[in-house]
Each structure stands twice: as C-alpha cells, then as structure tokens.
Amino acid sequence: MTYEKSYFFSGRSKSESLNMDTSQIVHNMRNKRNFLEKSGACCIVMPCHISHSWYDEASQECSLPYLHIAECVASELKEAKLKPIEAGSPLRIGLLATNATLAAGFYQEKFQNQGFEVVLPDKATMEHTVIPAIEALNRKDMEGACNLLRIALQVLLVRAVSSIVLAFHDMWDLLPQDDPLLKKSIDPLDALARSTVKWVKSLHRKHRKTESAQLKPPSVYLFLVRRSLNKYSFCIVICKTLLKLGFTCK
C-alpha cells in the first residue's frame, strides 16, 4: 500500500484525510494479516505510522500479538522517567507528524493514557513549516526541508516539551545523527523495533524452557505495508537480532 507516500504524505487537511473511504484499506490490511497468521507468524508489527489509523479494525480477532507503535513509544517514555521542563507543570510531549497522522489521534490517545500532556504544532507551524517541509522533501530539496524541520522542532521545544516524537521517519535523515535537536526527539519506528526485539527475546526464553527446546525456533514475519528503504532498515535491525537468537525471519 502506498497511502502514506501519496495521499497522506501531502499536506492535506484533517477533514480531507478523514473523509476518504477507507473500507478497501481495512480489507487489504485484514487480508495481509490473515495471510501472516496462516503462514506461521508468531507476532505482527506494522512499521508505518498512518496504517495505525486502522489498527483496531486490522487487529480485530487477530490470534497473534499485534504490537502498536504508539503504545511502544508511550511505554519507553514512561520508562525514561522524564522530568517536566517547568516545575509544577505536567510532563509535556511534543508530537510532530503529518496532518493525517495527527488527525487519526492514536498517538495522542496512547500518550494521554500514560498521563502525558501532548503538545501539537499550532496551525501556523503546520502551514508555514511542517507542510512546506514535506513539500520540499518531495521535491528533493533536502536543505530546505532540513531548515524547516529545525524550525518546527524548535517551536515545540519553546513550548516546554520534555521530548518530541517525530512520527515522520523520512525526516530523520535530514539532520546529522549528533544534532542536538535529534537528541531531544524519539523515532517511533526505533521504539517499535526495540519493542519487537524485546518481545522476541522473551519468546526465545520461553522457547528454551519448553520440552521442545531442541526443535527449530518459529519464524517471525514482519507486516510491511509499503515499499520503503526506511522499512527495510527497520527489518534489518530486527532480523539481525532474530538470526542471533536462532529464529527465521521472513
């Protein structure tokens, strides 16, 4: 599926993003999930932000663990024991994403469930920095996209957020890895990868304790929803760990 890269990758308004007919999307996701279940998968993950808009529908009646990207991020934020920037204020987490991801609301819901106050870009920031940054990235104007991304991140930091969730993986390569702005940010796909590895390791420990410890470990399948180098990078991180543990990754 290429919805995030085409329709959702643009700067469309929230109303436009939510009013489209999504029945075919849900149908396709369920078909892929059913295929994975029948293929012997032991866990399903979706390394795609916007696809989580239909997580509830896609995971309904699923017989396998189905990790949710926002829950993985929220858990890591909770475990990090961050402190509020302003004494006496609630712990604020900034969220930077496309209009479609923000409109879906699943990040806000999961973060608020953990007691965080979610800070979103205001209308001016979206219109003058975030959406133009997306458009610049589409034009391959990396310098322009980088400059606009810096502004968007700084605007959120000024609003006393303890950390920023940059739910837009294509933007992560714009800034140097040692950039201070990135050190204040979290990549949800990294959090999902770490949670997947953690889950697989727990399965590995259980597997070794069973009577069938000498049998070949089960395969782990990854639910890829669109072609992307970022998704393949995600797979490489997980598959390296799986192979070390003796699992088969498909």
Keywords:
250 residues, alpha/beta, Rossmann fold, 2 domains, 4-stranded parallel sheet, two-stranded parallel ribbon, 11 helices, 51% helix, 7% strand, Asp/Glu_race, amino-acid racemase activity, Asp/Glu/hydantoin_racemase
Task: Walk me through what this model shows.
Helix content is 51%, strand content 7%. It is an alpha/beta fold and 250 residues long. It has 2 domains: 24-69 and 189-249, no CATH class; 77-188, Rossmann fold (3-Layer(aba) Sandwich), CATH 3.40.50. The strands form 2 sheets. The chain has a 4-stranded parallel β-sheet with strand order 2-1-3-4, with helices on both faces. The two termini are 19 Å apart. Mean pLDDT is 83; it is low at 1-15 and 224-229.
Q: What does the secondary structure layout of this molecule look like, with pairings?
A:
Blueprint: H1 14-18, H2 23-38, H3 55-59, H4 69-80, E1 92-96, H5 99-104, H6 106-113, E2 117-119, H7 123-138, H8 142-158, E3 163-166, H9 180-183, E4 185-186, H10 188-209, E5 219-220, H11 229-244, E6 248-249
Parallel strand pairs: 1-2, 1-3, 3-4, 5-6
Helix pairs in contact: 4-6, 4-10, 7-8, 10-11
Please outline what is shown here:
Pfam families: Asp_Glu_race (PF01177). The protein is 51% helix and 7% strand.
How many distinct folded domains?
Answer: 2
Helix % is 40-55%
Oligomer: single chain
The secondary-structure element order is HHHHEHHEHHEHEHEHE
What's the story with the biggest beta sheet?
A: 4 strands, parallel
Q: And the CATH topology of the largest domain?
A: Rossmann fold
